[in-house]
Amino acid sequence: MRIGILGLGRIGAFHAETLSALDAVESLVVADPFMDAAKTAAERFGAEVADSPEAVLAAGVDGLVVAAATDAHPALVLAGVEAGVPVFCEKPVARTMAEGVEVLRAVEGSGVPIQIGYNRRFDAGFVAARAAVHAGELGKLHTVRSTTLDPAPPPAAYIAASGGIFRDCSVHDFDIIRWVTGREVTEVYAVGGNRGADFIKAAGDADTTGAILTLDDGTIAVVSNSRHNARGYDVRMELHGFQDSIAVGLEDKLPLRSVEPSVTFPAGTPHDFFMDRFTAAYRAELTAFTEVVAGTRPSPCTVADALEAGWIAEACTLSLHEHRPVTIAEVRGA
Question: What is the pTM of this model?
Fold first, then answer.
């Protein structure tokens, strides 16, 4: 099949590399506002270069990958849908929830599948955790802990346009909690601090946050995030039930140092970046998209799915700023 890619920045170039190695993908057509980025990708991966999104769609692509700046997501997704081309779009759907809801309304009933990029759904550990929960191996859940700690903050310009740590970083935890447990979040309480980069505080954001989520069955989920984790990129989940407890990310590349006597775990080189931690997951995610394009499976992460994680992020952002519990119904306007 022939896949178009819009946006050849860090994640777009990574997707181009991944797609170029998949057996189902015969050719790539790429475009980026910065032509040099498109040409570099074309040289590396044998792709064709187009000078606009319209030209990519006119090139006869079977599927479209949107990895452009967030502000461009709605228009590019709708362009693909209007052309009848299945779309993979990196999260978030749009810069604001209002825009995301507009996208959902515009694509409902179109019959064109859209997959939103939440890669943790394709990580082997999270897949196994979900299977264990749904098989009843843990019994009734009572506690979930989800962690995302970045080794260093992104640039100041990125932070200023990110929408905040809950919308940019924690949203991955929110999505995977929903997906693994099969439950919905009803209420949140969030706190945050700034003990690192001054430009994060100047942007009105926090560099380290904690959030307590109450799920619709009474399970408590604790989410911990930070832009500063000197030892590496740390993504983990614990699930505790009345019959068993399990963990995702408890492996030799875990960026954590034990001070217990005679303990050598973890013994590997710590993960230092999300592309290192989730290389296999990204490959599985884009393989799934080729199956969506081929019509052999439905979208594994729809626009509606992505918006649910977005509402949790909105609630946590409001909770942080107003120092109070916030229900999901409140931010939805229900």
Answer: 0.95
